[in-house]
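Ticket #4471: structure output looks truncated?

Reporter: J.K.
Steps to reproduce: submitted the chain below (317 residues) through the standard prediction queue, then opened the result file.
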Amino acid sequence: MYRQEAIFERAGFALSRSTLAQWVGACGVALAPLVHALKTEMLTRPVLHADETPVAMLKPGHGKTHRATLWSYGTTVFDPMKAVVFDFAETRAGRHVQTFFGQDTDAAWRGTLVCDDYAGYKQLFGERIAEAGCLAHARRKFFDLWAHHKSTVAEQALGFFGDLYDVEREVRDLDADERRRIRQLKARPVADDLFAWLMAQRQKVPPGSATAKAIDYSLNRWAALTRYLGDGRLPADNNWIENRIRPVALGRNNWLFAGSLRAGQRAAAIMSLIGSAKMNGLDPYAYLSDVLARLPTQPARRIAELLPHRWQPANTH
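Returned output as attached by the reporter:
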């Protein structure tokens, strides 16, 4: 908005940032029912991703910023529904995740959540929600060890992970049953060998060393890391949602802060629809322009027609 203010000024239009912010806020309010419908439909899916990234938020009455969190939730690469929903919260506390999934309600989501090892997710897991770990995070521990120290142990570990990912490239475009069959046939033996190798190596390295920490990460999360082998619906890692949140992380270089909790929530609503539109191959500008024009007269019972994965331009009706 700082840049746009200057651009408009050069073109002869005196538009302040506060005016621009009000316009964007109004769009966020108008789009909120559509984001709610997107979230409601996404929570019918059996497998979801979760990730989070820090965002600065202006503290009311202080003139200073503090670290807020933008949570991201999305469907998997294997799901025909392509959607991401961002949720802006004041903190990184796990209660925000529990609220998103409605864990205190009768309509609580049930399924498998793919996420990293952040403690904020842990209270979710139990009878209703199963945990699936991120193979890429486990691999990254060894990659960093190899890149910085040229560790031969890390190099051997990377070989195992490479074999597991070779299988994932092979099964990417298959249906869930066939994906599971091939994983059991080809990836399960590799995973078993990796586990035995990790156990053996752990006895050889000193506690507290970088190598021990890398090994412990995988061993401590082994059940979650290998859950994908027995379920063809599950991805092997959390990269899909990390890629959805990456533009936000890059965009922080261009932002000052979210002006308030409400402003952050409105921004999250807009970003949810832009991100979902991109996932469905849509031009976000064309999508939002059409949806904002149609929302005021769209019956509430038909609002799902305007979701990115179902949207058809008005002139095709």
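Triage note (M.O.): checked the attachment and the full token line is present. The two ends are 35 Å apart (CA to CA).
Status: closed, working as intended.
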